């Protein structure tokens, strides 16, 4: 019985596949990709403050947004 167990254990070790790179390489690649994503996110910091916009409430109680980036001077809610 123990011979069969030893044979199965030996076969299991042979069937195990090794990674194509050392384990630390996977960590370093993942960490580098995280830093790249962090850099992209960091590059967009404070961009909302660069777009000048003003809001006010008209006589009907609707909020109007002036200076929308796609239409400077455009007042939301108007058709022209």
Key descriptive features of the protein:
80 residues; mainly alpha; two-stranded antiparallel sheet; membrane; transmembrane helix; transmembrane
Describe, in short, the structure shown.
Keywords: Membrane, Transmembrane, Transmembrane helix. With 80 residues, the protein is mainly α. It has 2 helices and 2 strands.
| Spatial strand order of the main sheet | 1-2
Radius of gyration, CA atoms, in whole angstroms:
31 Å
Largest sheet: 2 strands, antiparallel
Order of helices and strands: HHEE
- The coarse overall form would be elongated
How many strands appear in the DSSP assignment?
2
Strand content: 5-15%
Which parts are unreliable, with pLDDT below 50 for 5 consecutive residues or more? none
What structural class results from the helix and strand content?
A: mainly alpha
- The N- and C-terminal alpha carbons lie at a distance of 89 Å
The average pLDDT score comes to 76
Helix content: 40-55%
Number of domains: 2
Number of helices: 2
Keywords: Membrane, Transmembrane, Transmembrane helix
Transmembrane segments: 23-44
Description:
Strand 1 (54-57) and strand 2 form a beta hairpin. The protein has two domains: 2-45; 50-80, no CATH class. The longest helix has 21 residues, at 23-43. It has helices spanning 2-15, 23-43; strands at residues 54-57, 63-66. 44% of the residues lie in helices and 10% in strands. By secondary structure, the protein is mainly alpha-helical. The chain has a two-stranded antiparallel ribbon. It is elongated, with a radius of gyration of 31 Å. The protein contains two helices and two strands. The model has no long low-confidence stretch (mean pLDDT 76). Keywords: Membrane, Transmembrane, Transmembrane helix. The chain crosses the membrane at residues 23-44.
């Amino acid at each position: 019985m123990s011979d069969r167990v030893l044979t199965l254990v030996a076969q299991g070790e042979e069937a195990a596949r090794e990674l194509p790179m050392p384990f630390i390489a996977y960590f370093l690649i993942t960490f580098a990709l995280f830093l790249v994503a962090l850099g992209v996110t960091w590059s967009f910091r404070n961009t909302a403050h660069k777009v000048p916009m003003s809001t006010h409430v008209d006589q009907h109680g609707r909020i109007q947004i002036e200076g929308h980036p796609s239409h400077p001077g455009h007042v939301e809610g108007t058709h022209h």
